[in-house]
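Your task:
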Amino acid sequence: MASATQHRLAVLVPLAAVLLLASPAATAAKSCAGEKFPPGRSYAHCAKLGRLGAALHWTYDAKAASLSLAFVARPAGFNGGGWVSWAINPTGDGMKGAQALVAFRNPSWPSTYVVNTYNLTGYGRLGASSTPLEFNATDLAADERRGKVRLYGKLQLRPGMNAVNHIWQVGSAVRNGAPAKHAFATENLEAKGKLTLCDGTAAPEPAPAPAAGASSSANASRGSAAPSDGKPSAAAAFVPAMVTVLLVWAGLVAIV
């Protein structure tokens, strides 16, 4: 009897561990946690953003309302002359009103990067010079690793800002020292979401409501984005539930 119980435990416990590691949250964390930053740069949270192959690493000091971050993305194009950007928008969820950090190669010293700041009050072209942000931005820097640009910065947010709308983008060219327009493909237009600073979650932007009369198949074709109410999907909840069931079963078997 004891040997049979031990055999069941030997099967159930590893199975529970496999299911837990295969959960969406664990997979997402693992996909960005392997990034190696220079000494002195480490972050409490990371999230794979799901659009444009980007990832965000951050630490938020809620008491001081201080956000330290590293945004990682590959510039568009093939010549390495593009740019990457990450921004928060305190007034909406689009480009207008965004407070942006933009990294690109230094035109004078192509082996180094510069980081400009832009307060996007409209949809006009960006200039070669930074514009002041609503939030004090310090520790601005950028480097490159394996073809991806890593943009660093620290923002002094307002007290109580525990969740923010954030936007990220990549472009293929810098002209006359200023970032040129990015593409307007679906990936670019959907590169936004809500970032919960304290608990380390970065939810995708909720899908727009379907037009009246739209078919359910059209809704299904949108993919597996998280529900707009912020609750985990049934698929995401299934794996932890199965782990719990298996561990409880293992405990009952051990008692018998």
